[in-house]
Design goal:
The longest helix has 24 residues. The protein is mostly helical.
Length: 101
């Protein structure tokens, strides 16, 4: 529903997915629980797809998607240590390299 025609639905779904990833997958990547983290690889994929569609179609919500990706997928601004930030980036790259499932 992140690509829904209704802006409020898109926003709510993107935010919920990003928060889910931030609560479940991000800590799992940082703690070395890779298989658990990979179960939510679809979230960065969907957010990046939405970003591409929104920016290409000038549909708005691009800044919000950037914020969700930065805060909940990459953990920017959360005060993580270097290793934790590296693992968050690794998780993002791992999800992106898998492509859509």
């Amino acid at each position: 529903r992140v690509l829904d025609k209704k802006p409020r639905v898109r926003e709510a779904c993107a935010e919920a997915a990003a928060r889910l990833y931030g609560k479940r997958a991000l800590p799992a990547w940082m703690e070395g629980r890779y298989e658990e983290a990979q179960t939510l690889n679809w979230i960065p994929q969907v957010l990046c797809e939405a970003y591409s569609v929104f920016i290409g179609g000038r549909l708005g919500h691009v800044a919000q998607l950037e914020e969700y990706i930065e805060q909940h997928v990459l953990g920017c601004g959360a005060g993580f240590k270097d290793r934790e930030r590296a693992m968050a980036l690794f998780g993002f790259c791992a999800a992106a390299s898998q492509g859509p499932e």
